[in-house]
Batch of 4 targets.
Target 1
Amino acid sequence: MATKVATQFEPKITAFVCNWCTYAGADLTGTSRTKYQSNVRVIRLPCTGRVDFMLIQKAFARGSDGIIVSGCHPNDCHYTSGNYHARRRWMVFTELMNFIGADMRRITFSWVSAAEGAKWAALVDEVTNTVRELGPYTEYQRLIDAGVA
Amino acid sequence: MSRVGVFVCHCGENIGSTVDCPEVAERCKQMPGVVHAEDYKYLCSNPGQNKIKQAIKDHQLEGVVVAACSPRMHEPTFRRAVTDAGMNAYLCEVANLREHCSWVHEEADSTTEKAVDLVRLQLEKVKRNKPLQPIEVPITKTALVIGGGVAGIQAALDIADSGHKVILVERSPALGGHMAQLSETFPTLDCSQCILTPRMVDVSRHPNITLMTYSEVEHLDGFIGNFKATIRKRARKIDEELCTGCGECLQKCPSKDISDGFNEGLTTRRAIYVPFTQAVPNIPVIDVENCRHYQKKKCDRCVKACPTKAISFNQQDELIHVDVGAIVVATGYKVMSTEKFPEYGYGTYPDVITGLQFERYASASGPTQGVIKRPSDGKEPETVVFIACSGSRDAAKGVKYCSKICCMYTAKHAMLLKHKNHNSKAYVFYMDIRAAGKNYDEFVRRAIEEDGVKYIRGRVSRVYEEDGKLVVKGADTLLGGRPVEIKADLVVLATASLPNDGQSELARKLHVGCDEYGFLAEAHPKLKPVETNTAGIYLAGACQSPRDIPETVAQASAAAAKVAALLSRSHLTREPIVAEVNRRPAPLHSDCTGCFLCESACPYRAIGQEEILDRDGIVIKTIAKINPGLCQGCGTCVATCRTKAIDLHGFSNEQIFAEIMSL
């Protein structure tokens, strides 16, 4: 058993979450003792509007295999409209990533409210499983070497 | 910064049972920049905090990472602790080992590994933290109260009595709101005007209150403690200084047949009018839409009649700018019109009226001096049917919610009818009787038992005219749905209370939320019932949801207490998590190129423009400038900025990239 676990690929997942909804939602997952896989590392930001997509690129460059960006649901933003800016930017960013040939299955954009502890656990598990299936993200390094990313 | 202390909390068993806390502390000691690391059972306890304070002194720490529960829980606790030890509060970061690690994962090496990573993230961040000072914002010690009904009156008086200035803005020409229209109030049957008019006079005489009637809030900028409101003072066409309120002009006006809003359309008024006799202020207003002068008919009878030359046809609307520190919104409600009910005749039967119209008939100041008559022929009705829940609790035809006051005022109406005309018959169709409140249920019982009001539990399917009577067809569900037919002289609909006209526009101007019906939304339904999500703006009365007078007055006083507490402080302290545009030496001055994308992205209109001048005062460059008083620290501008000229204190690019690089 132990050897099997050791050989299984464990992806590195980096999550960029807003302080008011998703971070609080993940806190709720904790207080409800809902279990999920431990691959995720959360970076707390005030708002998804703060997510500069350079952050995502840097995370990939540092060897993250999967990325989660999550904030308040539309209309629920603590800062009224930060998440709308994040969503608009996300549309453009998606185009860019497709253009350079990055694998979009490795980036997940989601809304998790402060009341959705279970959704956070499900989200992390789903992303972790998907990325584990995809294997290590080595192509990104090749994109960097080729000078496109 | 290279002298960081790491403190790992076991939280009893909460973290310790799944994460190897001594191991985490041991691993942290190896990390660059860490000069001290230790673990402890309960860091939030007094001895735990003392350990942190002691270590700061012993090791001359320049930064602290506490690996414990969520920062949303104890970040303030630990920041206070480091402050006690002489360290800047913002040099302390919290790694969330409990909610984000030990509680959600099984005991395993990978869990401890994650814990180490979470500490490392915060360590890399804290090394780049800068000492920040809380922002102190001055407070304008004036409150703005919007709405001059009983809620606004109460709030204004309470705030004014606490020694602060108040500007009370009322849209209509006079104070009083709906309460001034009412006859007698449940459950005590005391006369509404008798208890309200003295308070209206108090408002007009209070040295701390500036009363602005016939005025509306046009625009609002700013933030808690420092709002800037623009108020449109509509032209009354009367010079308020000169007018003595003698009323000579009122009788001379030839435009007569205008529906009187104060009497709910039951009577007419003239184009120059005072809404009601006891109006405060007792100054007429000219209704421009109906005045002959403005229809180019050369009428100046009121001008000739006025002994003080107070009438001024050329008077224009004024825009008045005021600075206020807090705002109470008390804009009230309106009632659904009878036109909304096809089964009750779509408003075509004159003798199907709303509860508010019935109030006017029952009121001593009303069109009939308190004698209950019916609109069609002015006769006193013998049989009156009251239909409760007209539009309320009826998602298909009206609104889903309960309008709350109808059960009580319907009982009151029926009672008043019986008191005024002993031979009359009163029937009430109802769904449930909701009479929760001090002496409320007793009041309804009195109507039924002492005054002989007939209560029929059931709905009315149809009302139609026949031989000068209104035939009301309904069912008595307590008798198995037996059909009931009553030939009535008057039908009174307890129509639903609705959000007032213009309320959603006002909400947008104030940046205050609405609920699904359009009532203004409180910040928390239980714990913050008078606050809104915009700091410094409070709610009172029926603008939030339907409510009766005692509840409205209580809420108005609660809002006033909140305002008084705010205005009694010398300044406000805010988190220094704000964005800033960088500055560089000349000739660059700043990385900002002046594209102002940030300006349009900012949800708080906190970004303006700043001109950089040379020695001769000539503009060299225009760059963005962020007002730290308005900035709430969301960081949207940071991500929007093309040249990375903006950074967010506490969540700087350097800090976040350092976190990512540590992974």
Target 2
Amino acid sequence: MTENESTERSALLTLDGLRKAYPGVVANDDVSFTVWPGEVHALLGENGAGKSTLVKMIYGLVKPDRGIMVLEGKAFTPANPAAARSAGVAMVFQHFSLFDALNVAENIALGMDNPPAQRELATRISEVSEAYGLPLDPARIVGDLSAGERQRVEIIRCLLQDPRLLIMDEPTSVLTPQEVEILFHTLRKLTAEGTAILYISHKLEEIRALCEDATILRLGKVVDTCDPREKSARELAEMMVGESLHIPTREEFKPGQVVLAIEGLSLPSPSSFGTALRDISLKLSAGEVLGIGGVAGNGQDEFLSALSGEVLALPGVITLNGKDVGLLGPNPRRALGLLAAPEERLGHAAAPDMSLLENALLTGAVRENLTSRGFLKWGRVKDFTEKIIDEFDVRTPGPENAARSLSGGNLQKFVIGREILQRPDVLVVNQPTWGVDASAAAAIRQALLDLAAGGAAVIVISQDLDELLEISDRFTALNEGRLAKPRPAQGLSVEEIGLMMGGAHDMHEAEVNT
Amino acid sequence: MIRLEKRPSPSRLWTVVTPVLAVLATMIVGGLMFWAMGKDPFETIRTIFWDPLFHETFGPYSRPQLLVKAGPLILIAIGLSLGFRAGIWNIGAEGQYIMGAIVGAGVGLAFYPSESILIFPAMVIAGAFGGWAWAMIPGLLKVKFGTNEILVSLMLVYVAESWLASMAQGLLRNPDGMGFPGSRNLARDFPAASNLELISGTGMHWGVVAAFIAVIFAYVLLSRHMLGFQVRLTGEAPRAARFSGVKPARLILFCLGTSGALAGLAGLFEVAGPAGQVSIDFGSGYGFTAIIVAFLGRLHPVGILLAGLLMALTYIGGELAQLMLGLPGAAIQLFQGMLLFFLLAMDVLSNYRIRLTKPEAA
């Protein structure tokens, strides 16, 4: 490590030649880079590039097969997360590990190695939350908090341990733009105090705004390093993918006649953790792509179920091509041309342990004539399945393979392809590119645009604002079960979008502006 | 160190091999148990698995018993397997079996001593109806009020047993039976209502025929029909099933109704044939053993056919072992329990791969 010694400041964490192999796949191979104190270091890469495995090694969850880590000049071989934490490494996971029924202070105490007494802890939580501009009441029950607030609980839990390195895995995927600003503000405060942040994200604009250094992983190897502030988002994406990216193209949108009309759709919450839909009204014309943004858990799933027919509405509430479909189940709605692709691929859009053939049958039976008098026409099922696999470039050894053996991106292409090939009049998709690699995501977006260009109306529900702005004609957002009034997507500012999504939850203007 | 690693999709080879391994493991551990009880394990295993079919003196007597015992087991297990595939747990087939027998026999006895050829078909329909109606109780309660079908159907077994006792001593008691509990003997005294052996010396009766038809029916339903697809889909992924357009309530009623009707049929064929009469001890546990048969056969129609025959063999062999070697009945039940235990345990092999790894240095 001669080059480190030659620099003025000393490295916080140095990785050298890390390798981790799982049966059948090398997750990381010869990964080396250095994190300096006080910097925000981005870890970039597509799904499956090995980012998660790498940070798990740093956090002591996984042991490297080969290679060394040096933290502040000392060899660093954490046996478990507790050892990593005591050495000064903390991590905020993408999926929170919080108990809904407990309050903030209790949740934080549960994640600490030596929690102090509740009262003392509550005081410290208040101190830290004030110091870093993260308002949080220690006595509130976590079940009542928004996703942004839950993330603050996780962050404060980390900050209470005075970490020197904070790892954040996709921290902004659950936040509104305003909440993202607040988070960045906190992170900049932390780095000013010398804490380093290892920041994992695939949102390139954010990385350009926040990070000073970036390491790009592809297929487990470091392929490049750069200063993201000096690169365009497109350049970064191409470094990640390793090829030039196909940007979806589209025709000018001319509104056709109204195909789907929703009038005052209200539905009670399906479960105690669900969201009630409140008075949603919407008109959708042929050839239109409507983007629906919103933070997860604001009624997206419930809205999709109401449209797909899994949950019935009142008569007259949903009208498709002039027909009242409010009381029809999924198959009659399919017959009339209203199709849907739910967010959860395994278990909702597809049955994990069933073959692709059976999964094609799952929604295709009605429109593709896959049955006659109830008997299955396996020959036609096979033709339909192979057509999906061919036209949507689904990588699989064959249609007999179980859905769960496919990678997320391939299964998503299958699910979207299955619906598009049934020539819908209206297609509703929820999170069409969630967990999908960049090139597959581009293919899916293009397919949705082509569908709309062919005269269908498409509703895209997504948390990815860049995606929505790229493909939508009109944009709206779900916030606590309410749908904002759709506005033309062209020229919409980030502030306006943020307000449609509900702005920052429980935030004071002053703290945003400090 | 041994590590389990989930397979991307269940191994087809192991799905077929595990039942065989489970039977072998049961023989080994069961043999050890018999040995610990002071019996010769090899002789005991031979008495259970070999002698019922091939013994010179007992063979001709016990061979027909194989079909007689396997028939109701297969018939009931086929019905149960449909529900189990969909995640609908009818544990009360024993009750539906009893009610099928009571209703079917009741219809026949009402026409005693008619000689009409319509009596037996009418009894068959009534038997199926009795089982179906009894299964509709947990079905409707589940659909309307969300009650747990496992508990309700199980409780109804004990209710059915009380009905059986009451019927045998009251309404259906043989008027010429000198006050003894039990109905007229349908097999012996009422030819138009009797379910006789169709081919002498084989044990084949109408119930066995019905069982074979049920196997074929279930096979076609599950592999070639939308309803069967919906049954499997509901069991694999309930949310996807709803998305696909399955109506859960309808499916629950179909599965419980079918399994009830088949159990009722089994009861009717039994009461009109091998058992002969509605008596207090008519309930013989077929409804519970069929649960084992359904799982032993991997909930697959052909598997159930084979499992039913195997289970019948352990029944007959078990009785033979009690008779010949003086084994207690409980030991035989334990032996049958082991079979299910090993089968479920061996299931791990079809879903997981076993890997030997060196223990990691701390």
Target 3
Amino acid sequence: MASKRGRMSQEVNAGSMADIAFLLLIFWLVTTTIASDKGILNILPPKQDPNVPPPEIPLNERNIFNILVNANDQLLVEGEYLDNTDKLSDDIKAFILNFGAPNAEAMELFNSLPASLKAQSNRDSKSSDHPMQGGAVVSIKTNRGTSYETYLEVLDKVKRAYFEIYAERVGLTAEEYRALTGKTAAEKELQDRGKEGIPMAISIAEPDKIGGN
Amino acid sequence: MSKFKKKNKVTENIPTSALPDIIFMLLFFFMTTTVLRENEMLVEQKIPEATQLQKLEKKTLISYLYVGKPKNTALYGTEPRIQANDVLINTSDIALWVNQEKDKRSETEREMLTISLKADREVKMGPISDIQFELREVDARRVLYASVGRVQN
């Protein structure tokens, strides 16, 4: 008997061990979420000096795109009630690219735009004059009771309108444009060329007291 | 011809017994290097969705503020609270916290400090605007509204 046992193979079949280890590895890779720092970047306005009143910048009503979100998360866009935000970014795009009463500088900008963007310009005298400094401004105003989710959704739509315009100017898709990091000179050049003359003029007003604490 | 015959005799088995060990080493490497979460969450975090996400390149420039309903409602109540590092703070403490965060960084990096605001989707705009007001006061004006991606329609 003893001799028989000695003849039996002492090796454990380790061939499938690698597969098991692979499974573990893949499980680990799939389940761990590496914290990503993605989000919507917003630059807050500088601090107000209480002794110096905020500068009054005269803006015509036609140059402001008003978005109001109330404490029940209902939207009032340019004086009209809106029940969903699907069309919002298209409306904002049309507003920015309106060129209702451009001055000489803005006309130069208009002529530099690609044909696809020029076609979106309505030249409506009741909408924004031009998208340059002191031209089209998108204003978002909320109540203190407005949910953060709705606010972010609206801000997202406004950003989308701008990014689509920038991307179209340089011939990229909006995703590609947003992915530009500005690390290399070529990327920075693309980024600047998209933005040039059309600053992201998003005004976020101080929320009023309704619905909050 | 005899030369070819000789070659055929060479054994073709590659020893695979060390393969599991290599894979295990890989696995342990991943397990030890991935940092799951630096601090324990004291507030609820359901990050809202958005489409127009931008990624920040330099992680060292980011400081996190978590806003949401406390998990331990018996102790902290149900109103949204702010968590910085691993403690709950009040709105008035933000200025102090920002200055501490600025001190941790070099002179040149300070003005590029970005506050990643990880707010729960249930939070109202009231607390958010209070935080933003405090951030403006201490001149930490780059705010990232942390959000997860959603497929654009």
Target 4
Amino acid sequence: MAMDINGETHANSPRPGQCLRTFLREEGMQGVKKGCDGGDCGACTVHVDGVPVHSCIYPAVRAEGRSITTIEGLPDAAGADLHPMQEQFLKAQGFQCGFCTAGMIMTAATFSDEQKQNLPRNLKGNLCRCTGYRAIEDAVLGNDGGGCSHPPSESCALDAPAVSPRAGTSSAPAAVGADTPAPAAPLVVTGTARYTLDVPTGEFPGLLHLKLARSPHAHARIRTTDTRAALAVPGVVAVFTHEDAPAQLFSTAQHELYTDDPDDTRVLDDVVRFKGQRVAAVVAETVAAAEAGVRALDVDYEVLPAVFEPETAMAPGAPLLHADKPEDSRIAVPERNIVAEVHTEIGDVAAALDSADVVHEATYVTQRVQHVALETHSAIAWTGADGSLAVRSSTQVPFLVRRTLARVFALPQEKVRVVAGRVGGGFGGKQEVLTEDIVALAALKLGRPVQLELTRSEQFTATTTRHPFTIRVRAGARRDGTLTALALDATVNTGAYGNHAPGVMFHGCGESIAVYRCAAKKVDARTVYTNTLPSGAFRGYGLSQMIFAVESALDELAVQLGVDPLEFKRRNMIRHGDDMLSLHSEPEADVHYGSYGLDQCVDLVRGALDRGRERGAGGEDLGPEWLVGEGTALSMIDTVPPRGHYAHSIIALTADGYRLDVGTAEFGNGTTTVHAQLAAQVLGTSPAAVRVRQSDTLLTEHDSGAFGSTGTVVAGKATLAAAQELAGLVRSFAAELSGVPAEDCTPVAGGVDCAGQLVTFAQLAEAAAERSVPLQAEGRWGGTPRSVAFNVQGFRVAVNSATGELAILQSVQAADAGVVVNPRQCRGQIEGGIAQALGAALYEEVRIDDGGTVTTDILRQYHIPTFADVPRSEVYFARTSDELGPLGAKSMSESPYNPVAPALANAVRAATGVRFTSLPLARDRIYLALKEAGRVPAVGADLLLAR
Amino acid sequence: MDMNTIEAVVPTTDPGDWREGDAWLAGGTVLFSYGSSTLRRLLDLGSAGWEPITVNDDGIELAATCLVATLYELPDSPVHAGTKGTDGAVRLVDKWPALELVRPCCDSFVASFKIWNMSTVGGNICTSLPAGPMTSLCAGLDGTATILGPHGSHREVPVAELVTGDATNALLPGELLRSIQLPASALAARTAFRRLSLSNLGRSGVLLIGRLDPDETLVLTVTASTKRPVQLRFNAAEHPDPGELEAALDAAIAPELYHDDIHGLPQWRRDMTYRLAEEIRAELLMGRSA
């Protein structure tokens, strides 16, 4: 029986157990996305006979004889190219990575006016990990999504005209400071943006599918792998085990210097060190055959003793995870399972604590959390006749992946190409090689294209998480409000492998304490192997964990001193020019105050909270069981990672504008827009005239990748330099063509204005071609010197002492982002950071049981914030312009995450008197702590709990 | 997700067709959500043709295949001729006020309204999660399940006893839940509903339904909080005071019966059960002497 898809009859029949999602994708509807494959995220929403359903849990055979509509077939409004809901998402830019967008639009397109009145209920089946939902709300309701989210009576830097260093030099409106829409927006809202696996049928003839057999043991040696039954499964082409894998050790972590991480990992190893680790790869003609092959494998394990907690892992006699590694693997103390450690002291902490008037001492614990980028890790590898290897991957770091693949497979770098399509969210999780190496191995062995797509459960059980930290804090202050001692002892669980272990530990201990002036600082930290899921890079990169401890501890000192916590922090925080000290008595040589807006951020948050209280956001209308309090936290971040971060941009004039090639990847961070804006600003044109190509190792020389919020401040500098050089070339060339002196030639929209005469792009391009003058320029930046950026978060919360329920009455964040290149996007980054951090603060926890099994392996067990969970935040910007960043801009992607959890914990402390030293602040835990503190009202007290 | 071990989808409602490796396919929202590496066939109830909702003077029969979306519309549906209440009620909920529970129970699904277009009342009960809101609703209304067995046999089990623990139930292999009968006596009751979750609109951690029947029997049904439904029943002469309610809860729910998973710590679930139970008691018995 046939199926009608978007008005066309499709005669193919689905397989018996097939879900509608995969059938529709096989029929070419690649706008239908897989976020979870379990009915939770809504990215696969389609209409069956006009009714919205999640196609990943819809039996495809049930759709036979029915009429299906996907994003590709959403009917247009009369006389328009797009459905009204698509127009609204375009207008409000209701997306970041865009992976959830098709499902959002397919859902919202069915809403009645009544349904739009209750978006928490009606959109709770559509998860977005990027935006924090404000932009989506604006889109669904038809708002323009511009401007700031503060109340109309408030103001911030964005309300003033944009700071534009070149304003007035051209007739074009300033590109920098404008809410330029993302260049990919029309593709995103129509479901035609190509993510990693959105490859047209036929592009990879003979494509094979790979599935991984995974270890059922936390620690074991593989004695033998009997592959005969697996190879006998029809459709299975090959099985690869550790015997097929290169001996080269590497780290899945990707950094500019590979020596930043220990070499402790093999593509396939004969020892498995966590439950879920790869054991073997089965490659087959279909996913189903590969799965059957995995089930048919017979692996004989010698089970080894395992250790799950860092404290026991460091104890004498503990099972050792990597004692077999060569000396040059860069593992600090393999015989104690320690990957990296640091012990430093500035001043005399013991003496300072002795003489302090108040001392706070507590142990803070942060949990494992997962990135939950909507697009799971996935890659396709293929080979060329010349022995070359190419990989299309969902990665933040294509150039580093290329280098790692070349190193692991002993290939010349020029024989390896890595390309990223649009990436469906990253958050640090895709600063790793988790799929590319195994598909490369298979493709190189088989000479056929091979695809691997991780399931959502594999994301939870076999990729990476944020590093769990246990942090003992001792802090002291004098009665006059001076912070005198700050000592941190941190133990970090890196899991079975040391990817990002040193970096996260060092970074965590850096800006978190450098932001305070304090004569005595002491840090002891170590990162420890255990037989658990590896930790890895995660938004904040160690800072969110340490800032939770530091900002909570300073809040406690202020409470003891009887002073306002934010005033106490203001008194002790660094001022412009102060040495920023953490692990050394001398500041980092290449970190400077390119600008300083921390004081403004503190004032903005203080003012906003005060005004919020005045306008009635103080919770006065709540019942007596509700306890109300305010809390704040501040944070600092270096604008670029240390030890070099490189970018290369090439810009050329074409017949219709400019073509800009950049290395950095786009995963919803909005850097593509920013690059177009920066180039357009210099070239006096509109961002729409700058066509950006990106994240393909064939296009540019090298790019360290999109991590550490470098897309604007590093790659943007390269683009800016390229554009500036090209502007000079174009002016000279236009002068030559027109006979007008170069100083009277100005690049403008459409070409170059030569004393009132427009020489068009087409004329310039044609003449350049004739004369063989390349109108092309390159720019590079090495990521140093670096500046600092700041974020301050404030909350007013109400806690229901009878149930533990926590309500956020007001959420405020102030950011010092330098010159804000794209206000709407930057605000979106901050809103998204707050939302993701609220998930970690309130709900999220990857739980691992006593045997090393991850028990939270689906989204119903790992609740990420839905539309119903995220409050609207007021976002304010400091007025600064950075001397080091491109056109005054600073980084602002990962840092908004960092102050959120401690600000929330501090607000709960203020409301209830109870200090929470561990996360998440779940309602059940809040209730039980209040009960222990005697703050719970008696059962039967006159309260109304119904909802 | 694809269920790649499935070799056939067989349209049938005959438990005699069931064999090892088969699963009944109702809406599919659970089967296709979790997937399987062992199932071979899906026995498809999609063409069963069972009337989703049958209303008569004895009460309401919900077919197992009744969509949640269909159930959601029930309270507002018109009272049919022949079953019209003597008070001239026009909506079903006016005749049977306990139907006010239907929408809060549907809204207790962590799944969105889109899933309701596929998932079924019976599927939710047979999944038998502690937080299954159709279990809450049907148990809370003293629903009786009709279960089909092979060779045309059938048996009846109270829904409150059908679900026996976290994802366990009293169904034997191959048995098929056919329908749930909600009795008129319960539907005529005055009700109270209380629910708590660790997140807004999230999975229920505690869900209590109270009922005061026309004969003044007070029935309290605890779900989500406990691994299986627990019912407390007090006849008109035995309405509890707060202390008696607390004692009754003590007696009915052993500490280990409180569910322990990521959706709520058992100690929290326990305390919330007592708190919400007392609220319900106070609300339903307001103005009556205990």
